[in-house]
Amino acid sequence: MTRDRGAGLDRARVEADVDAELAFHRAATVDELVAAGYSRAEAEAEAHRRFGAAAPYRDRLVALDVARDQAYRWRTSMDIISSSVRAVGRDIRRSPGFALGVVAMLALGLGVNAITFGLVDRLVLSEPPGLRSPSELRRVVVHRTNASGATIATTELGYLDYLDLRQSKLLAGAAGESASPLLFGSGESAERIFARFVTAGYFPLLGTTPAIGRFFTDDESAREGARVVVLGHAFWQRRFNGDASVLGQTLQIEDHRYTVIGVAPRHFTGSAVTRTDVFLPLEAASDEQVSGPWRTSRGFRWMGAVVRLAPGATDAAVSDELTELRRQAYAGERESESQSRVSLTPLNPVRGQTASGDIGMAALVGLVSMLVLIVAVANAANLFLARSLRRRAQLALRLALGGGKRRLIIEQAVEGAGLALIGAAVAVGIAAVGAPAVQRLLFPNVAWLDVAIDLRLLGLVAALAVAGGGFAAALPLWRVDRTDLAGALRTEGSRLSRRRSRGQSAMLLVQGALTVLLLVGAGLFVRSLNAAQAIDLGIEADRLMVVSLVRGESPAAPDFLDDVRARISRIPGVDLDTRVSGTLPFVSSWAVRLNIPGLPERPRVEDGGPYIAAVEPNYFATVGTSIVEGRAFTEADVDGAPRVAVVNRTMARLFWPGVSALGQCMRIGDDNAPCSTVVGIAENTRREGIVEGESLLYYIPIAQAAGNLRSGGRIVIRAADAGAQARIAEIVRREALALDPTLRYAAARPVDDLISPQLRAWRIGAALFSVFGVIALAVAAVGLYSIVAFEVEGRRREMGVRSALGATSTSIVGLVIGNGLRACGGGVILGLILAWLLAPVVTGFLYDVPARDPRVFAAVGLILAAAAILASSVPGLRAARTDPTQVLRAE
Hints:
- The protein has 28 helices and 24 strands.
- The protein is α+β, with helices and mostly antiparallel strands.
- The strands form two sheets. Strands 1, 2, 3, 4, 5, 6, 7, 8, 9, 10, 11 and 12 form a twelve-stranded mixed beta sheet that branches. Strands 13, 14, 15, 16, 17, 18, 19, 20, 21, 22, 23 and 24 form a twelve-stranded mixed beta sheet that branches.
- The chain is globular.
């Protein structure tokens, strides 16, 4: 008795077959015995005696049949895959252009995703490395109401707030931290490094152990503790080549020397993923590195806190307890503080409440890269679909001769997966070379892992390749069993179907819609970047450079600054130079006591102040800040002359509403100080951020300043050409060190370098959306071209007949272009609808541009229409050149 193996492995079916076979043999034995002279009852009894209980060998037979079926199906599958691999090789040799096109499409999509996966994994998906039980760790967030009535969430706390956290009964521990750039070393080897100030319990709380040496003790972290430092692992490798003898050495950090006591473990950067070069004890080092009453003032907020939940504690219970502690501590303070609320947020930034713009941008980049992959897979599916339609007769013949649909699908899927794996290998090579550069270019302050390509990434790319390639190749065959076999066998050459398949239409719809999404995103980010770059900063930053000099244990003296300036003024390419002390846009802020006679209550603005800047007479001309009323300072505004001041627009408007600020009195530094008369009103300037609220700022002549405002400061240079800034910076550093070989640090940095990080999110969005959009547009155009070209080939007879009946070349080209526009029209409309619906997703990333900007939507529609016309024109021109005589003779 033969059992069918074609229906698929099914134990119930096997059991039914075994039962039927046993019943057959039993019945045959009974019939033989009856024929031999037994009665029916005797025959059945004899058959039962011979066969006995069927259960034991029935189960063995079922097990044997199941195993045999499994082995058979395994051999069959391997035979199919083996023959499919051989078929792939033959197809690649016969159609190298087709194989190259599929590989290129998938390599492009996979390469983009391989690069962006590293970004998303480090910034969004993974916890900071080297932590014990990171799920128990939380960052402390304070919610308060600002002056405009909006609720803001911030992780910035005061030192007293941190001490309050340690009173909690629901926390297993709390630690404070703060990050700041510091000056390391001196002379030629000096550099700015990233330091993290941490409390003594920081490392035990996070659950890490040193690579070598040890961490801080409680005594070393105290106010009078020793000056000790723990090096970051990457910094140790870079500056000391991983030499363990660094332990015990003393290093120059800012104006003090610190003894190295340990090195953090590899890849450990604390509770964040940003680069950390050194760890300093917070209480001890902050007395030397942080100015201000940070130990005693609750208004001095400069640090964050990380806590670990006690066993059984919940976020809600801890938040309630910490909120109550905070409100008790701030009782009697402003309502925004006494009614503030504390919450906890995971260390993983994507799940946090205060995720930075870089984190959100990384997540958006990951999403966009997946769209590019989908477009690439859709286009690869279109290529396979077009080829399968060309091979309809061959496929129909195989089906007519008994070839199974399952075998055809497996063959196609193996071919697609094989080509995709080749593309994946190319993509991994692209990622290995490009990922480190992209990571450091887009997010330079992140501590990236040493290896850009790891096993997880390889596994992801391979899985995406197999899934995407297999799907693209097998998709055209899902409906092959519904093919009209006789019709397909009669279809040859130029008599291909003129109708576009549903699969092709669906792929064009997907490609068009996703391409629209990417191009709309590109347009919005480009417009945002342009709007941000067009912000009036109040200064002309494009050619400005700021010179920073650190000399020994004290700031550079005026005579030394004058000597440096004398050398700077002789450097070719330097137009202007000036000295400024105190507040300098995007560099520093300074405030002193200020009394305005007749002003009962000082007006407040969002970004604070009033801030002071002590400047030379040519300062305003050098930095490009205009005087809108009155005058700037002159050489006559020296010490001993009448004191004068210049205020910005905001200060003039708020401090003297309804009257002119010119001639008003300001007492600077002390309530009894002599009046500084306002002689000019300057244009507002940005203080720290290109997107910020108004701030109060006033200027005084540096010759009339006192103390550090007069003796310190920085030199500001205006270069004649932005391209000469690198050369000027090197000459400034060389001249300064030549003037004083003991100089600890000398650098001239373009102001644009200080502003550029604030534009990074828009630049990343504009660059990546534009690149991905262009890639998707090119892929979609190629896909549309292949479909239109295939349709034109299938309609050669019709085109010949039209031409024979008098149709002009223009009308034929117009017909083909019209078909192309209709083919992509649905995708464009769907994409515009999706972009309109998804607009709120990107609203927070844009600046001064509506997410549903009609100009962007209209421009994208026109771009897609132009691409469709271009993609359809080549097949249209080919159709117009069709010779009707040859076509009709072939028929």
